[in-house]
Description:
Layout: E1 13-15, E2 22-24, E3 28-32, H1 36-41, E4 52-56, E5 61-62, E6 66-68, E7 77-79, E8 81-87, E9 103-111, E10 113-114, H2 115-123, H3 129-132, E11 138-140, E12 144-145, H4 146-149, E13 156-161, E14 164-170, H5 178-186, E15 196-198, E16 206-207, E17 213-218, E18 222-228
Amino acid sequence: MADFVLSPPVIPSVAVAGSTQRFAVRRIFCVGRNYAEHAREMGDDPNREPPFFFFKPADAVVDDGAVLPYPMATQNLHHEAELVVALGAGGADIAADQALKSVWGYGVGNDLTRRDLQAAGKEKRRPWDMGKGFDQSAACGPLHPVTEIGHPAQGRITAEVDGVLKQEGDLSEMIWPVADIIAHLSGLITLAAGDLIYTGTPAGVGPIARGQSCRIRIEGLGTLTTSYI
């Protein structure tokens, strides 16, 4: 048994719907601009170019119902409603027609973004990791196993801030569906069980202020709520 200088960190994990078990998280990948209208609102061309990806730390994951301190170093925290894919298997160069076999389940996600820090990084042509990969930036609701719900290819996805509708779309509007996302990503890095993939957000991203709550809903997968103090 290894003799560590420091105690190993707690393994990040996500709740599983209807179970006391939890899903251990290995890595978190996110897809950028995977809905045409969101690409337009961010000033980009929504043509079907290859998807691009960025990371969040595994320990940035946050459970449903969390009441969180407003993130440091920002005045412009944004919500991004997303479908989360949880992998139960991995591999490299996975073919699109085989990719869904890697999926363990799905959940509701919020890819929280410090938009001011992201914008500053873009303006200076620098990485915008600190705009995306900060503490408690990957909210995720309970995962629903594929064995129970199958693979949702359509369904309404929304975000509300203090009960006011801000984002609305449908999973069928994704430029790159889940199988294609997995195929592309596995051509860049070897995927593994425990990886989460946030699959992009519809148009309407916007701020969450101190004292407000954000609720994400995906048809068939329930809701995810985070609140800020």
